[in-house]
Design a protein that fits this description.
This protein is an alpha+beta fold and 178 residues long. It has helices spanning 23-38, 45-66, 110-117, 148-158, 169-177; strands at 12-17, 72-78, 83-90, 120-126, 129-137. The longest helix is centred in the N-terminal third of the chain and has 22 residues, at 45-66.
């Protein structure tokens, strides 16, 4: 690459919100606006709706389960595979749990919706809290070119990975004998 060549900007944005119910709508609007800005044409409604639902559920869960313990950080970016990564960080160390919706029909749907609307979702402990990451599929025609190498490193570092626990054969035998 020559010194005069221009490198496309990374397609990513992050912001912090207060853990209040009124912040959910702002988070949805900002995420959709960012992705729409990165698109060469109009963002199709079905993709905007998916982004809204996933951001809404992740932010609502962070507010509901982390409480007023601290601010919530939201980050969205386009991955090298042309998917959208959505990460919500809160101050609660408790892992998210996908559960059956409650009988009242109004709550308990959060991670069920996230699982249905995304390619994958996961979480990892981070500092004194946790980050929940969801990956939404985007069609290749939606986004402008980007710096793939820099973005690939960012994605590798940010995608939550479950801890790997290995036990020795002796430990396995002790567990099975117990």
């Amino acid at each position: 690459m020559t010194a005069n060549a221009q490198t496309p900007a990374l397609q990513e944005v992050s912001w912090t919100i207060e853990p209040q119910a009124v912040s959910v709508g702002d988070a949805r609007r900002r995420a959709v606006a960012a992705v729409a800005d990165w698109c060469p044409g109009d963002l199709p409604a079905e993709y905007a709706d998916t982004i809204r639902r996933v951001v809404s559920e992740l932010v609502t869960n962070a507010i509901r389960h982390a409480g007023q313990a601290g601010p919530i950080t939201i980050a969205v970016w386009v991955t090298p595979n042309n998917n959208l990564a959505i990460v919500v960080h809160d101050s609660s160390p408790n892992p998210p749990q996908q559960r059956e919706p409650y009988d009242d029909g109004r709550s308990g749907h959060g991670l069920t919706v996230v699982a249905a609307e995304t390619i994958t979702w996961n979480w990892r402990p981070e500092g004194k809290g946790k980050s929940v990451c969801a990956t939404v599929a985007l069609p290749h025609s939606l986004t402008r070119p980007r710096r793939a190498a820099a973005l690939a490193a960012r994605v590798r570092d940010a995608i939550p990975r479950p801890p790997v626990h290995s036990i020795t054969p002796c430990q396995a035998a002790a567990l099975s004998a117990a």
